[in-house]
Amino acid sequence: MGHALTIGVYDGVHRGHQAVIRATQQIGSRLNVKTAVVTFEPHPAMVLRPENAPSILTELDLKLELLERCGVDTVVVVPFDDTRATETAEEFVERVVVNCLQAKAVVVGSDFHFGAGRAGNVEVLGELGKQHGFEVEGMALLPRPDGKVESVSSTAIRRALAGGEVATATRLLGRAHELRGPVVQGDQRGRTIGFPTANVAVPRHMCMPADAVYAAFYTRPDGTRHPAAVNIGKRPTFYQDAEHSLVEAHLIDFDGDLYGETAVVQFVELIRSEQRFDGIDALKEQLERDVSLAADILDRAKFDDSLTLNLNPS
User: Fold this and answer.
1) Is 38 part of any domain?
2) pLDDT, tens digit, 9 for 90 and up, residues 280-290
3) How many angstroms separate the CA atoms of 3 and 140, rounded?
């Protein structure tokens, strides 16, 4: 039967990616074929230039969940390694696009490159389409909803998160940026001052927002969702030279054991930057303000199980 398909890393499955998928689905409907996404694991940059590889917005499990929510019929995950890195554009098209998926149409962004040395682009793909009998459409990149010149991209989202601008990341992603990881035992200092936290162990290669305090939703494995005040940082009030930032979530109005379970933390709004306090009392006073503000923000936020987190419900 064949497929209409799109190819890319799809890190984030952001609004630009979603636009390409919708276009692919429209073409698939016209041609009466299924829709497929071809993606790569790990991110090719982690193999080609590991020292400069970008942090990752979505691990494979989340990426697959998001693609399923988008209504994609088929996802082909291409293991990217040194062998794949030397595969030419022509070899890739023949192996994956033609032999595996029997492509009838391929939709990609206008900046798409593929194959060894990034030699393949939309023009090359078009020539290969003529040889193998599939249509090719190169789509212009999606403009940002805030009117900035920069288009919607994984790079723009990483830049927003690096500045703590999680609300901007939400607008570009079309959903809240999230981190996942097991809850591990920390130093339990928060419990001793009345603000117990779940210490979420996030893989180092994941894209974390800047060190700061955020209003966020915390979802447990059973699907229950809790408002939370989340601190990302090195805890300068207690430690002078902490090596790595930690993700610590204080669940508002919750009392229970979270150790060992996998947490999903979805970031809604920046509350303040991380700072050092002169003593426990000053810290506790600020934490009380943080929790109160986080509760107000999250009470106003409308969250559902789709791709969208609407921060300004009508």
Assistant:
1) yes
2) 888 889 899 99
3) 22
Structure token pair of residue 29: 């409907």
Tell me whether residue 17 is in a domain: yes
Number of other residues whose CB lies within 10 A of the CB of residue 109? 21
Domain count, the chain: 2
CATH of the domain at 217: 2.40.30.30
Biggest distance spanned by C-alpha atoms of the chain: 72
**149 phi, psi to nearest 5 deg:** -65, -35
| Residue found by looking up tokens 């996802």 in the block | 75
Of 112, 139, 166, which residue sits at a domain end? 139
Contacts of 49 (CB under 8 A, 6+ apart): none
Query: In which domain, by residue range, is 262 found?
Result: 175-310
Do residues 74 and 39 touch, judged by C-beta distance below 8 A? no
Report CA Rg, the chain: 22
pLDDT in tens, 46-67: 999 999 999 999 999 999 999 9
Q: Where does a domain end: 139, 166, 200?
A: 139
